[in-house]
Every structure is written in structure tokens, then in C-alpha cells.
Amino acid sequence: MKYFTIPELTASAKARALGIDNTPPPGVKIKLSTLVNNLLDPIREKWGGPITVNSGYRCPTLNKAVGGVPTSQHVRGEAADITVGSPAKNNQLFKMIVDGGFDFDQLIDETGYSWIHISYSPGRNRRQVLHKK
């Protein structure tokens, strides 16, 4: 874990505001480390600049509070929503990820590149690329 930390992937203003403990259990911490080591850090290295995590791990209570689906990969510690600051730059990052040979499960352009959802599921990565309106 060179560029990202577990606290960064578990921080949540919504959790703080609602008094929700978003501390991941040990198994989820392992999955978060796997996400960082196999996907987020290599993407950051290739991008060559900062990448901000908007949302990483969400405990089930937090996930429900933000309107996430119960089967969200965020709950398992396998996903992060990231940004590099603007829709135009997020679009560039998205294209770099698609063309860069990265082993991801899902890569989702969220509402015109407002942010990017990316996930990693060891042994089950589908390299699924989606665009949400």
C-alpha cells in the first residue's frame, strides 16, 4: 500500500454525521489491501498524480444510509469510488484504465464521469465496463 491507506478507504462524512461506526472487520481489511495493491496503487502509479477516494468500504448500515444496494462490492471491501478532480480528467483516467490492461471487476462511469467506480474481485474479475446516466 504505497499511495492509499485503510483509513482513507473507510472515511465517511455520512458515517460521522449519523454516528455510524464504519470500522471494517479483519477480512474486509484484507480485501481493501488487495484492492489497493492490485488495482488502486498501480493505477495511481500509471496516472502519475493524486487520485481521491470518495467512497471505499461501507458497513451495511452506512451502505443502506447512502442508498447502496445490499450486494454492493463496497460492503465487501472490493470497491472504491475515485476522482481526479473533474469530469474531463475522470474521463481521461477511465480511458487509461480501460486501455491499460488493468485487471478489474467493474469500471463504471458514474453520471457523466462525476466519479469512477472501480472494483476488484480476485479470481472473479469480469473487466466489465459500464456507463451510468
Layout of secondary structure:
Elements (H helix, E strand, L loop, with lengths): L5 H5 L2 H6 L7 H22 L4 E4 L4 H6 L7 H4 L2 E5 L3 H13 L6 E5 L4 E5 L8 E5 L1
Parallel strand pairs: 3-5
Antiparallel strand pairs: 1-2, 2-4, 3-4
Low-confidence stretches: none
| Major sheet strand order | 1-2-4-3-5
Structural class comes to alpha+beta
* Overall radius of gyration: 14 Å
> How many strand segments?
5
The proportion of residues in beta strands is 15-25%
Helix/strand order: HHHEHHEHEEE
Q: What number is the mean pLDDT?
A: 97
The rough form would be described as globular
Note the total helix count. Answer: 6
Biggest sheet descriptor = 5 strands, mixed
Distance between the termini: 32 Å
Residues in helices, as a percent range: 40-55%
Please explain how this structure is put together:
There is one protein chain. The protein has 133 residues and is α+β, with helices and mostly antiparallel strands. The chain has six helices and five strands, in the order H-H-H-E-H-H-E-H-E-E-E. Strands 1-2-4-3-5 form a five-stranded mixed beta sheet. Strand 3 and strand 4 form a beta hairpin. The protein is globular, with a radius of gyration of 14 Å. The mean pLDDT is 97.
